[in-house]
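Justification of computing resources. Each target in the renewal requires a structure prediction run like the one illustrated here; the chain below, 223 residues long, is used simply to show the kind of job we budget for.
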Amino acid sequence: MWGLGAILEVAVVVCALTKGSFRRYLCLNLYMLCSLVVSIVRYQKLNDYGFSSDEYAYFYYYSDAVLTIFLYFALITLYVHVFDEMKAERYVRSLAVLLLAGTALFSYEVVQQSSHKMLTHFFFELSQNLYFVGLVLTYVLWGAILKLRETRTQLIQLVLSLGLYFSGFAATYALRNMYPSFHHGAILQFIGCALPLAWAYAFWRLSPDARMAPARVAAMVPR
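Resulting structure tokens:
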């Protein structure tokens, strides 16, 4: 699963470059490249120190927080694409930075009472909270797509797959909080493969300018 995930991350970038979508969705592709590098280093740490080592655990949680922040900004660029005709890019980016700062402050307040490995706990809490924030923002974006009758098929595919990704990670973190003994590694690996697979499909099979029939989008709007 680890190797498959790395191959799919490469596939996303290759498909985007081949089909001319790399620059259009630059942040998404840079996230995939960053995720590929992190996957390789994680695997090296795992081989060198073992799964139960502090070195592997520290690198895993620190890198996970960085990747989550990167994915958060990738999500914001999808907001920019949806609202591009409204010229709201500056407002979207400003609100995104404020929301990220607020999430980081909330995470700090949660862990500040912990004197043991506070920095590690902070990054874990930040990553966990950003998954929930990303989940909410993705479904808010989906609601905006429905209301605005957005019909770009590739953009819709990217947003929907990201919503499923955030949902899977948020649910996994929730289960871990309720059941500390819950083993989530295999589930996270599966979810980690699903996102690049969906994005590779979107870049390879769907043209950036292809549009869904307006009637199909209208049918998704609750009456």
